[in-house]
User: Which sequence fits this backbone?
């Protein structure tokens, strides 16, 4: 009922600030191109293997972009689908199962729906079966106009790696759809090649494997490199097609690729013993915001997470979205985030990392008195609970967004 919604609104009004940043409106009427980098974690950025950069293109791109080096994925069992859910809604994923499966018929107030009223066309590109993660159903609820799934691609033995169509062919075959789309558009490309178990034939592997007792970690580096090369090729094609200048390109890692099961090998690669603190720090994934022609490029070290992308993008587009419920805040706004919450109640803020019941100093990784983490512990659980209530109760049904008169899944 509506009274529960009041509680959530009250909490968000009190606790989630929505300041405007200097970048307000910088993307006005531009295309948005999201690239979801399958299983890419930040620990590969600016790192080498046998003298070779793992991600030479991303490393270069970072020099010419905003790079958030303390950006965390916040996904749970829904993996890629959770990352999509968080990014589009600025809500948390569910504690058990993928919300893409369990609550696909809910009312949402996702970015594709909000920007439809500003004349934006929206599409997802992902060369997997459309019903994987129940995407075909969920994308309608999120307000997407078009889903270029596997059936829009020519997939054969030659262009298949691991789970399906390789990333290079995926981008190559996508560009014609992108060119013919109504402008401005809001688009999302979901890569696939760098997926567990990170299989890659020798002729496509352009850097060495790592040498450890973990086959998974060993194979990870050449497939990450493959995706890096595919993204490089995509940027070239965007430039050739003339779309590049009018677009803002946002790349992010969807979730970890290497689980803590491989900590011994990971410790060998990083040259240290992996502690619970390190396990949290390994949940960092790259976030690169590339604005063609922008000279204000820098590395931003504030603590941030996937939950912040929706308000960030809406602010960049210059869209007033006052009447909404989001748990994240604009990444470019001055005020630092209070905290980044993980689904199990662990959290990170500027000072501390809290995990496995222990409080750490975020900068040094040293254990500190629990007093430092105590005040946020309950607040994080409270916030996760409010997000869950919204989803379980389908509370957006009762919400008056005010600024969007026709927000009822217009693409249905
Ligand atoms: C499947 C792709 C990978 O379509 O998104 O899914 P994941 O296993 O990473 O959730
Ligand atoms: Mn994934």
Assistant:
């Amino acid at each position: 009922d509506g009274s529960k919604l009041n509680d959530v609104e009250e909490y968000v009004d009190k606790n989630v600030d929505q300041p405007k940043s200097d970048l307000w409106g910088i993307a006005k009427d531009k295309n948005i191109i999201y690239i979801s980098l399958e299983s890419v974690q930040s620990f590969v950025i600016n790192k080498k293997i046998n003298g070779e950069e793992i991600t030479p293109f991303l490393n270069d791109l970072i020099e010419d972009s905003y790079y958030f080096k303390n950006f965390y994925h916040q996904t749970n069992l829904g993996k890629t689908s959770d990352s999509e859910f968080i990014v589009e809604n600025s809500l948390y994923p569910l504690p058990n199962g993928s919300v893409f499966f369990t609550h696909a018929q809910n009312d949402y107030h996702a970015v594709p729906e909000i920007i439809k009223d500003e004349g934006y066309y929206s599409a997802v590109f992902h060369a997997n079966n459309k019903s994987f993660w129940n995407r075909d159903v969920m994308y309608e609820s999120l307000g997407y106009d078009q889903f270029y799934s596997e059936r829009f691609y020519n997939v054969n033995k030659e262009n298949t790696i691991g789970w399906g169509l390789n990333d290079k062919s995926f981008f190559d075959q996508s560009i014609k759809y992108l060119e013919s789309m109504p402008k401005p558009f809001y688009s999302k490309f979901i890569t696939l090649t760098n997926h567990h178990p990170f299989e890659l034939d020798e002729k496509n592997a352009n850097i060495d494997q790592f040498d450890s007792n973990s086959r998974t970690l060993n194979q990870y580096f050449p497939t990450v490199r493959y995706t890096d090369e595919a993204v490089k090729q995509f940027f070239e094609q965007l430039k050739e097609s003339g779309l590049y200048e009018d677009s803002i390109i946002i790349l992010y890692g969807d979730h970890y690729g290497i689980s803590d099961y491989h900590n011994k090998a990971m410790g060998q690669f990083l040259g240290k013993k992996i502690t619970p603190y390190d396990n949290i720090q390994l949940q960092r994934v790259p976030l690169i915001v590339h604005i063609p022609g922008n000279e204000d490029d820098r590395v931003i070290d504030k603590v941030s997470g996937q939950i912040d992308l929706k308000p960030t993008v809406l602010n960049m587009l210059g869209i007033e979205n006052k009447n909404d419920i989001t748990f994240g805040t604009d990444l470019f706004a001055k005020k630092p985030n209070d905290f980044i919450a993980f689904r199990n109640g662990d959290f990170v803020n500027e000072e501390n990392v809290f995990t496995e019941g222990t409080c750490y100093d975020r900068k040094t990784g040293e254990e500190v008195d629990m007093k430092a983490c105590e005040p946020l512990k309950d607040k994080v659980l409270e916030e996760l609970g409010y997000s869950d209530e919204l989803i379980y109760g389908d509370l957006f049904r009762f919400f008056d967004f005010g600024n969007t008169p026709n927000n009822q899944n217009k693409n249905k």
Remarks:
- The pocket of manganese (II) ion (ligand 2) is lined by residues 38-39, 79-80, 254-255 (CB under 6 Å).
- Confidence is low (pLDDT under 50) at residues 404-412.
